[in-house]
Amino acid sequence: MVNLIVAFFTIAIIFLTVSCIRIYRRVPKTNREFMDPLSPGLKMLWPSIRLFAFYISENLSVDYLERISKKLQVSGVSYMMTAEQYFAIRIISTLFALSLTVVCSLLLDEINLKYLFIAAVIGYFLPVMTLNDLRKKRQGLIVKSLPVYLDYLTMSIEAGLNMTGAIGQAVERGPNGPLKIEFEKVIRDMRAGMSRAQSFRNMAERVQITEINSLVSALAQAEKTGASLGQTLRVQSDQRRVERFQRAEKKALEAPVKLVFPLIIFIFPVTFMILAFPIAMKFMYEL
């Protein structure tokens, strides 16, 4: 009887393994030759991500995938993964959070459905928070390097170059970062036959930053009215530099307020304990 059970169990494991292999082989291979490299964590999870993305993508609406694609584009990871693969990451994150919660609950000999629900919610929305952090970091880097690129554009325009040549000089000499990549895309669009105004509008749509929108509007207005591009860019550069100084000043003024919470919670209690310990010990020995 025991041998029969073992045999059935072995056959079931074999069929399960064969089925999993056949299911995975149905997933088409993706060509990542022109894609951004994956992080070490994503490399480990990529087979599972491809599997979930292939079998779940059919059930996702086109509007949802389009919204996700725009978010990926703004965050700068649109050349790393597709919208389907991003949704697969959310599913895997949810399953991992649930599994971790179940393991911890079994170790504590108590399974609470409330904790499972909280873990599922956190796991599902953790990739969203990560994507928002990437978007804020990328936009911050773009705003930080924008005055430098505007200075290069201004000097190149005033030296007699056209806009394409000026952007090329700015890209060649400017600092590395997401803004350099965006200007390279602008050059590519302009060389492909797209108008200058449309190329800049596409960049503004990709980054979705107020400063870039202001720059694009000023350039479009200057092109329509025949105003000097050099003067327009110089005004934009001065304005961006003033705004950068104001942001730095604002952060410096906010620092004392942000330090109040850690001071009250962590530093002050320890300080009071260190000061009160000798006094308390002295009273104890005197009694």
UniProtKB/TrEMBL annotation:
The chain crosses the membrane at residues 86-108, 114-134, 259-281. It holds the Pfam family T2SSF. Coiled coil: none annotated. GO terms for cellular component: plasma membrane. It is a multi-pass membrane protein. Residues 150-275 form the Type II secretion system protein GspF domain. This is Type II secretion system F family protein. It comes from Shewanella hanedai.
